Amino acid sequence: MPPQVFAFTCFVRKVYLTLMIQLLFTVGIICAFLYWNTLRSWVLRTSWFSYTMMSVVLVLAIFMSCCGSVRRRVPLNFIALGLFTLAEGLMLGSVAAYFDAEVVLWAVGATAFVSFSMSLFAMQSKWDFTLGAGFLWALCWSLISFALLCAIIRSQFLYIFYSFLGTVLFSLYLLFDTQLILGGKYEISPEEYVFATLNLYVDIITLFIFLLQLLNLCNS
């Protein structure tokens, strides 16, 4: 096997193995918040915990996005990624505690199905989705504008449409980031395996949040 191909194979393997560990760890934390009644009751009485975890997630995401030297330096990159995964898992668990357990599990299953389907399509497709960065950025700002509209006009129909739009957007982002890893016109360097893993993880987690909101609204 040529050295370049071997390096690429190791890069992809490292990204998806790390991603799998992150997702399993996150699902485990969510299940703890759903089925450990003492923990669930505590979270429902302690609203500050969710907001604190959101703040920690945001700070760590900005830190890892801006500090390229940390992302490439072992073991600092894995420590930062581990802390981010822990904070994200605790945040999701505290949010999931407010929803019915059955709806959360349906959202987990739907996220797994959509993520697998989009990743498989990105691997097999001859279309280069990395050229669509501008379109995704415009769609992202449209979603933010629509969120502000939902805050003003309180309508369940608008909430459902907003959740659906967010689901579509982050499904497309998953396609985009998968092809960045596999190599389109624009691609991520093999040295940035932690950043690549972070991108996919954030895409899947955000997709889960929108699907959870969508399923809960349709179920209510």
UniProtKB/TrEMBL annotation:
Transmembrane segments: 15-36, 48-66, 78-99, 105-123, 135-154, 160-182, 194-215
Main location: membrane
UniProt GO cellular component terms: membrane
InterPro entries the UniProt entry points to: Bax_inhibitor_1-related
Keyword list, A-Z: Membrane, Transmembrane, Transmembrane helix
Domain of life (superkingdom): Eukaryota
Subcellular location: Membrane
Membrane topology value: Multi-pass membrane protein
Assigned protein family: Belongs to the BI1 family.
Name of the protein: Protein lifeguard 1-like
Chain's gene name: zgc:110410
